[in-house]
């Protein structure tokens, strides 16, 4: 492999671009590998997991090597520690296509703890970045202090921006400045930490010509708002409905705000491939008929009855691969209605309309009819990889014997009907597995090595641990973990979207 030519190596390393550990190892093989992998690593050198950038002296060295001598002299006079002069093996910044303000601030803080000194080096860095970087693709501007659109050549760099991450604490004037140049953003992620309406963000949305991915996430503590920050940006977003194919909205519960506008505009986003809404949206029957997404692949609508999710599934184009939600929140919404009937209908809609489903959240009662329909789902949905299961009898409190019986039924169904692709199962609520039944299940399991997550502490006992360790050693269990329900659910959703 060390004799592969540079073009082949580049294609291989491109496939590893999200695996920083492997790419860093490739640097050490030989000069050719190093020359090929450096441009890939330096596209976005500020975003590698597991790196403490505030201690990353080598990045600080690279940045300061680019500074002009007179600037270095001035910086030194201010008491900022600069490394000894070194020549660089590569023109690193010429490969860079990204700015992450928070990470760059951490790197620059290595030189000085004084705010003024840090501000000055940051300013010099952005200036040289605009000179060296051929194009800017990714910009995380949270904590930004510098109006970089005023730097020479900034307009040329900003015109190529594809992804922007920002927050609503940034002054509207900053977004007005960006709106002059950044009109081809495809991914826009907004963290809402200031509850006042931000008209600059609205303007930035309005000028976009090819916005495909939009994410809004509330991150504030107020339960009551003086002003509604949502309507102005939702009206702007509505105008982009024909281009957006990934929509993620995470609204915090605010008691004096109703999100009726979001309900009304959702049917207009007919090209969606991803729809994730974390909000109390109560759709009427007419609205449900209009929620038609023929290209939808990922669906997660929280705090809704199962019939809402079922309607979207039925109106879809059969391309759904991921249906993710917090089942217990759905059960709470169904509690005063006919949950048993709704859950049966939901299971049927899955196996009738989702032949490609890979990741699924599902909640149902432990009746014979529900188990039969669930088994049919497993037999039809052959691509299923990950399953979050909640079995709950809302009509009565189950005895321990009945809960163990539910567990036995479930394990038999999984043995007989689970697709061979199934490799991760999360269990919750009215079923437990006896030591005997769990051993029989693991002995007969013939699919992928299983990762099992459960919220029941019974599996922390010594007997169960011994059994689980045995089948880990045999390669049947990949992982078996006990987690709280909240952590289990959040992990399931966050790691599958």
TrEMBL record:
Cited InterPro entries: LRR_dom_sf
Top-level division of the source organism's lineage: Eukaryota
Gene3D superfamilies per record: Ribonuclease Inhibitor (3.80.10.10)
Protein name: F-box domain-containing protein
